[in-house]
Amino acid sequence: MPNLSTIVAEIAAEMADAPDRGAVADYIAPLGAVDPRKFGIAVIDADGACHSAGDAEEAFSVQSVAKVFGLTLALGAGGDSVWKRVGREPSGTAFNSIVQLETERGIPRNPFLNAGAIVISDILLGNRQPAEVIAELLRFVRALAGEDGIFIDNQVAAAEQATGYRNKALANYMRAFGNLHHDVDRVLGVYFHQCALAMSCRQLALAGRYLMRSGRNPTTGHSVVSPQRARRINALMLTCGHYDGSGEFAFRVGLPAKSGVGGGILAVAPGRASIAVWSPGLNDRGNSQLGTLALERLVQRTGWSVFEG
Ligand code: DON
């Protein structure tokens, strides 16, 4: 295999010329203003070295990628009881779909759908104020990455709070089934601020290190979650991390990964690397067009797919 830094630099150069960059999400106004030519990639290898290229230092809105960190905290707080309120199956529906909630009585198929992440926000809220939960999330992500510069973009959160009608519908619907225990606005306050987490590719790849080696940060040696929990989070990322595009993503890339409508993807090559890519243009399933292509090329050149070859 050629040198990893060379592969990463080559992929960034190829993406700079890519003609079809997808469409930037504009249903959250500040996201619509992001330059579609942006592309960043950062790969933290098993020795902790960072190989990055393109706009890897620029902070972007991680959106649904943050659902991985929210889920990790909720499992820490609630353990397996979380699975009474949210499933572990791919939905085959869009990230913001409401259709299954009626027949499945307000229990979302998985924690990465918007509905699932809203339930996770309700679990995280417990008896606390939304601001305390968000402060904990920010502390957690900063500690995972070892970076104090990570922040929450309040403008993005405010834009979603003002216009997130579908999320409000999902939350109210689940509350009607008794699967939200707190006031809808407070739960959504947690959810929208979690989505508004702003990180660079390098920071995101650093934060994902605990998923690449049995729940333990390979650089610091700190155990974040048990090996079983890390394995299970990876399984959910592989099967549900790209919504109704999860099968296609597994087919093309073959890594546990979580996407966000800001155009970021966090991918895990178990035992080998934590990877973050960012390009704001999305495909028709709401997942980064060039981010997916870049990861496809990375696994082709490194042999890192979990399916090998
Ligand atoms: O709730 C929303 O619609 C956004 N804050 C997050 C959606 C998202 O990132 C879906 N992922 N591709």
From TrEMBL:
Top-level taxonomic group: Bacteria
Question: Which terms does the record give in the GO molecular function aspect?
Answer: glutaminase activity
Family under the similarity heading: Belongs to the glutaminase family.
Q: Which Gene3D superfamilies has this protein been placed in?
A: DD-peptidase/beta-lactamase superfamily (3.40.710.10)
| SUPFAM superfamilies reported for this sequence | beta-lactamase/transpeptidase-like (SSF56601)
Which HAMAP family does the protein's record reference?
Glutaminase
Q: Which GO terms describe its biological process?
A: glutamate biosynthetic process; L-glutamine catabolic process
The reaction(s) catalysed by this protein are:
L-glutamine + H2O = L-glutamate + NH4(+)
Say yes or no: keyword Nucleus present.
no
Q: What is this protein called?
A: Glutaminase
Please describe the quaternary structure of this protein.
Answer: Homotetramer.
Q: Which InterPro entries match?
A: Beta-lactam/transpept-like (IPR012338), Glutaminase (IPR015868)
Q: List its EC numbers.
A: 3.5.1.2
Tell me the residue numbers annotated for binding substrate: S64, N114, E160, N167, Y191, Y243, V261
Q: Source taxonomy lineage?
A: Bacteria, Pseudomonadati, Pseudomonadota, Alphaproteobacteria, Sphingomonadales
Q: Which UniProt keywords apply?
A: Acetylation, Hydrolase
